Amino acid sequence: MQSLDHDQVSRHIEASPETLYDIIADVTRMPELSPELVSCTWLDGATRPAVGARFVAVNVAPNGRTWKNRPAVAVADRPREFAISRTEPMAGTVRWRYLFEPEGSGTRVIESYEVERPVTRLGWLVIERIFAGKDRRDALRLGMEQTLDRLAELVESPSLPTTDPPA
Length: 167
Prior knowledge:
Layout: E1 6-13, H1 17-25, H2 30-33, E2 37-42, E3 55-60, E4 66-69, E5 72-77, E6 81-88, E7 92-103, E8 106-117, H3 121-130, H4 136-156
Antiparallel strand pairs: 1-8, 2-3, 3-4, 5-6, 6-7, 7-8
């Protein structure tokens, strides 16, 4: 049986903390960044990040299986920190956190997770089946690295030049 407790990755990105916070905290954009998210939709009339706001997230495993969860915003401190907490039956409670620290001409973005209530034994059986026995800790780390890489690409890539239509 695997175990999860916490992990974090970080990356310097050439953008302001405000810009990066606004992208991350708009959970409807997270599927652009996270390799495990298919969609995120605010619930109960929420339209922006605020402590207690909930959303439904649809995740996808490498084998194509999807599942839903309903995280809640735990911290919405623009431009310093954004955090969500999600609890699933048998899958415990996990807090995902993004810190935005000014660094030179850009920002150091730190993405982390911390298990606040562990996954049950039955939960691990389900997880191991969905993820075909692959190490979940390694998959989560890779997903965080890919998320920050995609965030950097989104804000650091030069815009495509516009061309005038032919006369």
